[in-house]
């Protein structure tokens, strides 16, 4: 009986005692506000992590191959990585709704109006200031509201809190500059034109995802409407009849993890450089 109890006790201890490998694993720095406790936030602020990074995502249809929450899924990884590289920043929860309009034809979009987004950005920025952050950075993965709403909120709140030494900044390089440069890279290297749900989005989701963000069986047929001429996000040419009306703008069939890695790294590097420049680091 004694021997049985001893074996049982050793077995139970093995279940609850961390292995040497587990104990040796270095703990990742805490940079996500929603994954921290309030004492951890307070300690981080006291240690100088006084920059709050607000990244907006968006819930919208992304063609038949990509999940509707792609902006949010990509955004969380991007903003967390930016925070890690800055070293003195905390990634706030990604806002899952941005300016857009729902559609019964392509039922994957739930959107805000620019006016609602403005109020939300103002509120969450001021809430972070009340929490103790000294710098607030606004960024987005979705074009809706950029640059006007983000820039306006940053300007008005910076003026309001200037006497307290608090800054609210708009980082546009992570979206506008990175996407424009990546589009130029694709064109220079012979890739087909695409924008919404095209090569950039799909490639990034392939690279960052866990295998469930992109329906691989749909990728060989991921050809959509002609790409609009003009700036990213522009309406399709009225004289060019849609080929598919499936939510894809252009051709996403050559999307790859390698291209997604390149765009992801561009977004992070561009954002870190711009934020450092705006804050004088």
Q: Radius of gyration from the CA trace?
A: 22 Å
What class do helices, strands and sheet pairing give? alpha/beta
Query: Roughly how much helix do the residues carry, as a percent range?
Result: 40-55%
Q: Order of strands in the sheet with the most strands?
A: 2-1-3-4
Number of helices: 9
Q: Largest sheet, if any? A: 4 strands, parallel
Query: Mean pLDDT across all residues, rounded?
Result: 90
| Ends apart, CA distance between termini | 68 Å
- General shape: globular
Show unreliable segments: 17-22
The helix-strand sequence is HHHEHEHEHEHHH
Q: Proportion of β residues?
A: 5-15%
Work out the number of β strands.
4
Write the layout of secondary structure elements.
Blueprint: H1 2-16, H2 20-24, H3 38-46, E1 51-56, H4 70-86, E2 89-91, H5 114-131, E3 135-140, H6 148-161, E4 167-170, H7 173-188, H8 199-208, H9 257-279
Parallel strand pairs: 1-2, 1-3, 3-4
Helix pairs in contact: 4-8, 4-9, 5-6, 7-9, 8-9
